[in-house]
Amino acid sequence: MYSDIINIRYAKYSDIAAITDIYNYSIRHEISTFEEVEISVDEMKARYEEVVIKEKHPYIVATTRGKDGEIVIGYCYLLRYRARSGYRYTSTDSIYIHHEHRGKRVGSLLLERIIEIAKEMNYYNMIGVASGGNDVSIKLHKRFGFRFLCSMENVGLKFNQWINTDYFQLNFQLTQ
Ligand SMILES: CC(C)(COP(=O)(O)OP(=O)(O)OC[C@H]1O[C@@H](n2cnc3c(N)ncnc32)[C@H](O)[C@@H]1OP(=O)(O)O)[C@@H](O)C(=O)NCCC(=O)NCCS
Question: What's the pLDDT at 107?
Answer without folding.
Answer: 97
